[in-house]
């Protein structure tokens, strides 16, 4: 009788462990990080009466903890991609970065095939960059993808020469460019829940993040293609 009870108990423990392992596997497979990047909507922008350039919209959608915002859209031009690749390479010398579409004097912004070929090349470049964990740790990449700061302002922000941090810059741009209200509402709800929990446990708290001005403004695009 005793052996029978022991066998039943052992069988129950094994079944429980199996269920826990199965549940853990399901949890791991149900949450997989992803980063979707699209380079799209090329537009001709007038620089002055004599010069024009093309910029492209960069759309990001992700659940990765590496990103401050889970959804964003910015516009960048080819020259800014050149700057980004140079800066990423200088900070990750052991990594062979993917190539950008070549710069050619025969590029015609009024030729749809030329424009789309470059757009595809820019998207492939970003897709490969975003697969590398080391490159993802570079703050310049996040400022490039989720703010409209110029290269000069991005460098200043990363080097600590601005009143705002990288996260401040990203949130500030998002507040000026409210194209994704669902994420804004989710963040607002999370903040309100956190504030409610804090108020119930303590009093005399300092000012909230909303009262701190980061002084970050979206910068216009650079002057070369």
From TrEMBL:
Give the highest taxon in the source lineage: Eukaryota
> Could you mention a single GO BP entry for this protein?
vesicle organization
Gene3D superfamilies in UniProt? Phox-like domain
**Composition bias, kind Basic and acidic residues: at what positions?**
181-194
The membrane topology noted for this protein in its Swiss-Prot or TrEMBL record is:
Peripheral membrane protein
Q: Which GO terms fall under molecular function for this chain's record? A: phosphatidylinositol phosphate binding
Q: Where in the cell is it found?
A: Cytoplasm; Endomembrane system; Endosome
Coiled-coil positions are none
GO cellular component terms attached to this protein's record:
endosome
Entry keywords, A to Z: Cytoplasm, Endosome, Lipid-binding, Membrane, Protein transport, Transport
Pfam name, any one: PX
Q: Low complexity composition bias: which ranges?
A: 199-213
Q: Does the keyword Glycoprotein apply?
A: no
UniProt record similarity statement: Belongs to the sorting nexin family.
Can you name this protein? Answer: Sorting nexin 10
Look up and give the organism this protein is from: Cyanistes caeruleus (Eurasian blue tit)
């Amino acid at each position: 009788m005793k052996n029978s009870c022991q066998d039943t108990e052992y069988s129950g423990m094994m079944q429980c462990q199996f269920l826990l392992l199965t549940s853990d596997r399901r949890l791991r497979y149900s949450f997989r990080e992803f980063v979707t990047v699209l380079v799209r909507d090329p537009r001709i922008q007038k620089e002055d009466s004599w010069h024009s350039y093309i910029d492209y919209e960069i759309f990001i959608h992700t659940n990765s903890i590496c990103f401050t915002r889970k959804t964003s859209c910015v516009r960048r031009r080819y020259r800014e991609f050149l700057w980004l690749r140079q800066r990423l390479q200088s900070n990750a010398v052991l990594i062979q970065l993917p190539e950008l579409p070549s710069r050619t004097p025969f590029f015609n912004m009024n030729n749809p095939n030329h424009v789309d070929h470059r757009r595809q090349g820019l998207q492939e470049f970003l897709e490969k960059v975003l697969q590398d964990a080391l490159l993802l740790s570079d703050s310049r990449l996040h400022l490039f993808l989720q703010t409209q700061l110029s290269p000069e302002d991005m460098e200043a922000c990363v080097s600590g020469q601005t009143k705002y941090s990288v996260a401040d810059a990203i949130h500030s741009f998002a507040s000026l460019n409210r194209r994704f209200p669902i994420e804004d509402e989710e963040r607002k709800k999370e903040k309100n829940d956190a504030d409610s929990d804090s108020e119930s446990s303590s009093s005399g708290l300092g000012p909230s993040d909303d009262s701190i001005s980061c002084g970050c403004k979206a910068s216009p695009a650079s002057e070369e293609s």
